[in-house]
Amino acid sequence: MPKISKGGPLSSKPYGVSAVLLARYTVILLAIALFYLNLVVAEESKPISPKSYQKLIGPGFSTNWFKTETPMKKYSEQNIKDVRDKGFKNLRLRCRADLYSYNYTATNFTWFLKNLTTVVDHCLKHKVIPIVSWIHHQAEVCATQKDHDAYVAWWTAVAKELKDRHFNLAFNLFTELGEGECGTTSNESIRSRIDKYNKWTADVVAAIRGTGGNNGQRILILGSPGKTAKDLKNIKSTIYSNDSYMMAEWHIYASGPNKKKDGQKYWTGDGTTKGRENVKNAIYEATNFTKKYKLRTYLGAWMPQDNDGGKLNENEVISFARFFVSELRRIKIPWSLNVLDRYYDTKKKAWLTGKQKIKGQKLNMSRVLDNIREVMP
Ligand SMILES: *[C@@H]1O[C@H](CO)[C@@H](O)[C@H](O)[C@H]1NC(C)=O
Ligand SMILES: *[C@@H]1O[C@H](CO)[C@@H](O)[C@H](O)[C@H]1NC(C)=O
Ligand SMILES: *[C@@H]1O[C@H](CO)[C@@H](O)[C@H](O)[C@H]1NC(C)=O
Ligand SMILES: *[C@@H]1O[C@H](CO)[C@@H](O)[C@H](O)[C@H]1NC(C)=O
Ligand SMILES: *[C@@H]1O[C@H](CO)[C@@H](O)[C@H](O)[C@H]1NC(C)=O
Ligand SMILES: *[C@@H]1O[C@H](CO)[C@@H](O)[C@H](O)[C@H]1NC(C)=O
Ligand SMILES: *[C@@H]1O[C@H](CO)[C@@H](O)[C@H](O)[C@H]1NC(C)=O
């Protein structure tokens, strides 16, 4: 067996001095490295102001992975990488709470939580901002006490599961408050009852903040009581005035512009007739609100094509898209485009390039997306 020689490099004279020096430098270098590592780590886990968060959200997409009974059926981590590589920075993870019973300890709901965590973690890993949002149309419209309690319980379960995740994760309390029938004679919907909106929101904010971890200072994005920005002023200001980590969501053109004369979403040609003015007015509601109430906003849903009537041709779709995106960029409101699947095949992990027939209108959505990317922040 070879014996370790007593005259080995470390003990021999010529090498001894430099070995000591080397050790000393190594210690110093290590200390410096640790110092900077600490700074980086400390910075990474710091709460994010709404002003910075608005910049981080940037342009992105809304998603369908959690809108089906088998979550993530068509999902793969590559989807998230591809989104980021294309220059998009956020994904709105719309979650259908109505697919589950109100027993949030049920096995299929705990699976949902695990699946959601997987996607959130992939987003964080690939520098995409994950924004989780709740949907339950029946509950929004009926809005009974039981619905309220289940809403708070849903968010409590989601918040607990994700409480230690990076501050880049945000919770968006409503996806969109809809209208509809509940079979009652009076209109009980949250949309028609601002008192209910405020109660549900205040209670859920308290519940989420109370789950601890990073949730005490995580960005929470309030829903608009009536979709668009003009209703934001109806949110009871005490819900956000003493909380430094609040924003609000609003949207318009969630199913695109159309050619309904005198409508709020009318657009034809290049928009000079009335379309551009419509866009500007819709946006004014948001910027005026922010100026007055000091709450920053995010636009959670829009699309450039006429998804109901198919009345806009490809050039009109593009001119609307370019104008809308440019205006939002000017006032620094970030957005999520409806919906990733329109532009990208999640199952095949490939961007779509063919023509698509949308309500009878043939559109090259790849060309539309190229135009959006040219003017987006
Ligand atoms: C989950 O289980 C509940 C209770 O069995 C059931 O009502 C619900 O439809 C299930 N949801 C999904 C998405 O499987
Ligand atoms: C909820 O689901 C869990 C797990 O499946 C079950 O043990 C429990 O009895 C259920 N609770 C109610 C109130 O149905
Ligand atoms: C969703 O979660 C369940 C339970 O943890 C797991 O079996 C399933 O593989 C997950 N789905 C995906 C696509 O990761
Ligand atoms: C309930 O009120 C909302 C908001 O005022 C309105 O948009 C909706 O049409 C009403 N729904 C019913 C069923 O009356
Ligand atoms: C505002 O928030 C701080 C800390 O979050 C709390 O100590 C204080 O009591 C709150 N003030 C009001 C008026 O709610
Ligand atoms: C917003 O403010 C501008 C400038 O103060 C004003 O001209 C405009 O009418 C306001 N618009 C809305 C929709 O409140
Ligand atoms: C759609 O536009 C893209 C450019 O974004 C182009 O590469 C593709 O060939 C077009 N597809 C068709 C069917 O014209």
Automatic annotation (TrEMBL):
InterPro entries on file: GH (IPR017853), Glycosyl_hydrolase_5 (IPR050386)
Keywords: Carbohydrate metabolism, Glycosidase, Hydrolase, Membrane, Polysaccharide degradation, Transmembrane, Transmembrane helix
GO BP annotations listed: glucan catabolic process
Entry keyword annotation includes Cell inner membrane: no
Chain ranges passing through the membrane: 21-41
Keyword Membrane: yes
Gene Ontology CC annotations of this record: cell surface; extracellular region
Superkingdom: Eukaryota
An example Gene Ontology molecular-function term: beta-glucosidase activity
Protein name, per record: Glycoside hydrolase family 5 domain-containing protein
Native source organism of the sequence: Acropora cervicornis (Staghorn coral)
